[in-house]
Amino acid sequence: MSEVVGQPVIRNDAFDKVTGRLKFPGDLTMEGQLYAKMLWSEHPHARIHIDTSEAEAVPGVVAVFTGRDVPHNEFGLIFKDQPVFSYELVRSVGDPIAMVVAESEVIAEQARACIRVQYEDLPVLTDPREAIKPGAPLIHAEKGSNILKSYHIRKGDVRQGFAQADVVIEEDYYTPATEQAFMQPEAGVGYIDDQGRVTVHSAGQWAHDDRHQIAHALGLPEEQVRVIYTPAGGAFGGREDLSVQLVLALAAWKLRKPVKIVWNREESIRGHHKRHAFYIHHKLGATREGQITAMEVELIADAGAYASSSTAVLANAVLLACGPYEVPNVKVDGHAVYTNNLRAGAMRGFGANQAIFAVEMQMSRLADKLGMDRSLLRAKQLWKEGSELPTQTVVPPGVGIRETLMQLTESAGWSDNGPQRPPPSGPGKRTGVGLVCGCKNVGYSFGFPEQATSTVELFGEQQIDRAVVKIAAAEVGQGATTVLAQIAAQSLGISYDSVEIPTIDTAEMANAGSSSASRQTFMSGNAVKGACERALEIWEKGERPAKATYQYLPPRTTPFDPDTGECYPNFSYGYGSQIAEVEVDMETGEVTLTRVIASHDPGAVVNPQAFEGQVEGGVVMAQGWALIEDFVQQDGLIKTRRFSELLIPTSVDAPSEIVHCPVTVADPLGPYGARGVGEMTMMLLAPAILDAIHDATGIWFSKIPVKAEDVLLALKRRASTLRQV
Question: Is pTM, for the whole model, over 0.90?
Fold first, then answer.
């Protein structure tokens, strides 16, 4: 049997997608289904009184649900601090207040407009820096503070480290809240299955946790709740929290009839969490030779109105505040803070983006201050095998960050004198080159329970004709099922086309964890590989069909020490380095990203085509984060309500060239040496772009997005200052 891992096989969902045979959540229908529409708060912070009587009287309305109809009116990914329906108090305009279920969508919409809500406004907090001040109004009064969680790292002696420094770089950075902007809005169907179980057929990133949260809110045993996933049109972390699943389950459970809901784009933007806005103060000290002596960092994350995964995002950001660098003296303080903005949660990068942005901007500023090559400065202190982390534990083996930097600079023709800037396309244009390095965890961190379980069944007589691999790894567009099928085929010695991976169904599959933390290739890959190897042993003993289950457990991680931050945070990391080339129009301020060179270490490339797709998708998403997208909330209200106002990058905006130069430093624990890569491709480019803008113009920016008007105004301010001098 030829090798399957490492081959660019066609995705196993490609045919069904391009022919339209595959059903996305919005395509799901059931005979006799009812239709649901939700009512959202129009005020960011208020006491409310709800009157649903007029809506209930509309002909064709079957029910109107509020918080009083939910047995346990609470849910949340880590902390259950969010009501299913806000009944007496709203904390953001993302709070659902009620849901109408009717015989048609039109009737449901008409009845929704008949629900009367009286608002008694309360003070609105939208800046987490203000929310942590003494005397600030409390978002959750019962908690006694707006600080959801704080983490701290202490290593060495920071005062001594800065005393040893010849150069100190100190700056404030800001990264904004960001919309995931996946293509397919939230939708699904809830019903009672033939065994009486409350069933939700939808899409998400972790079916078993959806089931857990639904069961809690409805007061049901988990075995009485069933979650089925169909592939989603993108996620990027935005489907990690519950959206429509719980309310569909509630309606089906109460009415004993199938109920369908489809959010429009404005509801989707309102209804799911965003990437955290971060305010970061970063202080870095170094010798004149470029050796870092100390870093002192404060990070304040805007959690929005509810916790979601804010504590985990903050922990990642605190850990990576020093980047992939050996720093002898470290002080980091991080705080996740409640505000009346939309809740913030998982998004591609999960806190690493914000931390890497700040530290890489600091490294580029330091190189500029010292007159030192940016690549050589980073190479002096990049992690290597056996390096000590800020948490005073050793980085796991398989460290490929230096190799990515070496491969990157070699591919870019980066000489001892620095990069070769491309020639400008015309008069009034200047070009610049920026560089960045970074890393991110693979898998859950800080002691969060981590496992993945798979069952494999082999069919045939003399040879294996078919392998059915059951693994609850959510397919959200990233190609997880393709990679897992390749791992299964390789492990069994059969063709890729002989492997079947059924749709996720919690009634038939064990928990495999979420499609997040770049973990599915590593975690579910190991689970599938182990199950295949066990099934093959049974097959070789003559049992037909042969069936085996395997649970993969990685090395245990540990949480931060509350005072020092000492811990073993992660069992694996992914690494990458990128170069951005830009052209700046000095008359208009427009920045064009012309070329990106990307070197990433996935441990091993399971599918080269999928790997390149991850890199290219990550690059364009990061381009939008850095230059174009601007999700605006003002006084707690959403000003960016649709894609036409968000301005995500299109094919016209994408760089004309993305150069791939991967390296593969095998992860000793990964299946066939592989580790995750999906988030690492997105988290690097923004600081590289800003470094390149400085290289072209001599102007530093410390927040994103950097729009054309920002560049133009900065150029005019500099010109005015020079004239005055």
Answer: yes
